[in-house]
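User: I'm putting together notes for a lab meeting next week and I want to include a structural view of one of the chains we've been expressing. I don't have a solved structure, so I'd like a prediction I can at least talk through. The sequence is below, exactly as it appears in our construct file.
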Amino acid sequence: MTMAPMGIRLSPLGVAVFCLLGVGVIYHLYAGVFSNHLSYFRQRKKVDLRDLLAVSVEAAQLGGKEVKRVREEDTLNEKSKGETKEGAKELLTMGDLQSHRKMYNLIKNTFPEITVFSEESDSKSDSVSWSRTIPDDILKLEKGREVSPDSITVWIDPLDATQEYTENMVDYVTTMVCVALEGKPVIGVIHQPFTGFTAWAMVGQGTNMKQRSSYNLNSPKVIVSRSHSGEVKNFIHSAFGNNTTIIPAGGAGYKVLSLLKMHSGQTKPIHEADVYIHITYIKKWDICAGAALLNALGGHMTTLKGENIDFSGTPLNKGGLVASVEVDHKDILTKLPNWDPSKK
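Assistant: Thanks for the context. Below is the predicted structure for the 344-residue chain, given as structure tokens.
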């Protein structure tokens, strides 16, 4: 007598239970592996601020090469983006765009998780990558301050002083990068394309800039924007007296450098000022790098009312600004007349 082979039949419910058991076994076998990979990924996403400073310097210098090349080839192709509140034309040139493409993409290609704001916008990408070179003076800074990319905002000005750039007043022209941590500027880079000099600072770590030996608040030299020097003259004379020297100049980056000691790498003359004042709205990519440089030297950049500027969120700073170093900043603020920065 022969017997048919016996088989095991599972009901649909049994199949489901069997599958769940299998998944459970797999999960327990590999949960530790998955956990380790996730932990590594989280650690890898941290950003070292010294590396970010080196990338910022390289980006500013790379953008500066484009700015200089376009000016020397006379291929500006300038056009108007509109007008400032002071009625000055806001110009856009190929120098602005080419510099933006290099600077923005270098930073984003290196640190894709961080937020980057630029004065310009462009749909063209660039495969430019960080050279992995850290300049010797930056290499001396302490390594290891790693921060979450969520806490970082980077502000780029691909070409500061575009109006002066079109007029071939290139001493005023800079490219700038600033890194703000939780809204506070901690890294600032201001590069002068036509001299090749780069000023940099990391707050609490070091800078290649210095204060001058003396500043004069009894009869200060105040540097201001060329675009609204008429109205700001009355404001400054009310604060410091009619004999105050007022220096109209282009570019916020240039104005901050005028407060500091001339570096040996700065091969062209630069104005020397005791205070930098701006009485209307100004964009954060114009001033963030300068704020970091001043803060690294114990200086200050505040609104006209003495408020700290939050370098996160929207690009517009509506409170005007006062910038100084190695002087009594509060004393300056007390001398300023009441002023509404929304006025022209």
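A couple of points you could mention at the meeting. The CA atoms of residues 52 and 107 lie 8 Å apart. Residues 1-6, 15-21, 25-31, 33-43 have pLDDT under 50 and may be disordered.

User: Perfect, that's what I needed.
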